[in-house]
Write a sequence for this structure.
């Protein structure tokens, strides 16, 4: 499948001369790419300011890479059954000297367009492995791989070198691959999967269900884990939401294919309770930890690795566990049941 | 039990509370009470004023034992 981003400029409104039209349509094209690609945008006056900002960011990014100013932050991944921290997801962090924190969602596309992604793509797994070497052997680390990085035939070598340099066992490194890389179902994609599995790393399918995924890919690609996108998790406990059914379907599918699942973006106790009930094997989100620096990530895994759900943002009151025999009356039917936990606002039975 | 449906939880013959099903999965169901309860110092819950009359009084579900 081929996608396209389209910039549109109209004559004479957006330029009477050809060079002006081409310049403006180029700006509109950049705006379409910034909007997540596979979109179209018309030229508008304010795109000039956005273009200037992009050029400035590109230059700053070059300097940041040269000065080794990019960092990896780590968000713990918790095993749902026992709430032990079993790994981290490494997230790129750029603290711009004037603009402050800049999201990878903003600077990675710039890096891709500016040809800087190869340098970042080599640096990230190397740094992640260096940090991972200092953590307990039971801990894994996941690194994101963009579609452009996945298309780089040197990726298996880059990953193997990072592992060899740090002495980390390949099974401790997980590469998170978005389903967009699977759209090009070519022999090259299959060969890349095989090459990565020969290196020995784990593979996770990121943002599952948010794009144009095909279930057929799950059969062909040797994934060890499916990551359930936060858009399915957040709001799943709201009345009338169908997200719970979607999460349950994904976990059933993953279980049948012998894959783990990680629910991303879990922020409230309600959501945590639900994704655990729906069978998600791993949980990641603010309910346990926000992303933290490499130094700060040392402490949570230095002890017994048990995470504690912290729910300052939840609208739901803290629940008290208990076992209490009750009778539930529903549609005139009386059912013997056990009240398992209760709060001022609700209960689980 | 479909989400959105109403149920009543009876702790004893004269102590019950009503709520709405928020989700259900296999043999478990999560409910939101129609009226909030009040937690007492001893860990039991009291039904606040305004609850249907059949539900007024102290809810005597004591922790037994904590999971």
């Amino acid at each position: 499948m081929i996608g396209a981003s389209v910039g549109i400029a109209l004559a004479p409104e957006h330029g009477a001369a050809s060079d002006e039209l081409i310049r403006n349509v180029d700006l509109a094209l950049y705006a379409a790419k910034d909007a997540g690609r596979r979109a179209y945008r018309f030229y508008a006056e304010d795109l000039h300011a956005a273009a200037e900002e992009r050029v400035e960011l590109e230059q700053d990014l070059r300097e940041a890479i040269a000065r080794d100013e990019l960092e990896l932050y780590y968000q713990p991944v918790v095993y749902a059954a026992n709430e032990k921290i079993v790994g981290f997801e490494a997230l790129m962090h750029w603290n711009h000297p004037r603009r402050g924190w800049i999201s990878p969602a903003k600077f990675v596309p710039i890096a891709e367009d500016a040809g800087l992604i190869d340098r970042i793509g080599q640096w990230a797994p190397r740094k992640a492995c260096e940090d991972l070497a200092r953590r307990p052997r039971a801990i894994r680390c996941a690194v994101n791989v963009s579609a452009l990085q996945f298309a780089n035939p040197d990726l298996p070598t880059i990953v193997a070198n990072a592992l060899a340099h740090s002495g980390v066992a390949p099974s401790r490194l997980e590469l998170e691959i978005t389903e967009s890389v699977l759209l090009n179902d070519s022999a090259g994609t299959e060969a890349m999967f095989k090459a990565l599995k020969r290196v020995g790393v784990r593979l996770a399918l990121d943002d599952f269900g948010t794009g144009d995924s095909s279930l057929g890919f799950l059969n062909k690609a040797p994934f060890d884990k499916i990551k359930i996108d936060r858009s399915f998790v957040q709001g799943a406990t709201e009345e009338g939401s169908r997200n719970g059914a979607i999460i349950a379907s994904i976990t059933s599918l993953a279980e049948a294919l012998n894959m783990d699942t990680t629910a991303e973006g879990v922020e409230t106790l309600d959501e945590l309770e639900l994704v655990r009930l729906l069978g998600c094997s791993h949980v990641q989100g603010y309910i346990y930890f926000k992303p933290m620096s490499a130094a700060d990530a040392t402490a949570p895994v230095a002890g017994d690795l048990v995470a504690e759900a912290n729910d300052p943002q939840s609208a739901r009151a803290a629940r008290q566990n208990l076992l209490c025999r009750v009778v539930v009356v529903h549609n005139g039917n009386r059912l013997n049941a056990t009240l398992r936990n209760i709060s001022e606002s609700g209960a689980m039975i | 039990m479909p989400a959105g449906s109403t149920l009543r939880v009876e702790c004893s013959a004269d102590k019950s509370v009503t709520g709405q099903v928020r989700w259900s999965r296999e043999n478990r169901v999560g409910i939101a009470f129609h009226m909030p309860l009040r937690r007492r110092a001893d860990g039991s819950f009291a039904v606040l004023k305004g609850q249907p009359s059949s539900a007024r009084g102290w809810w005597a579900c004591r922790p037994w034992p904590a999971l």
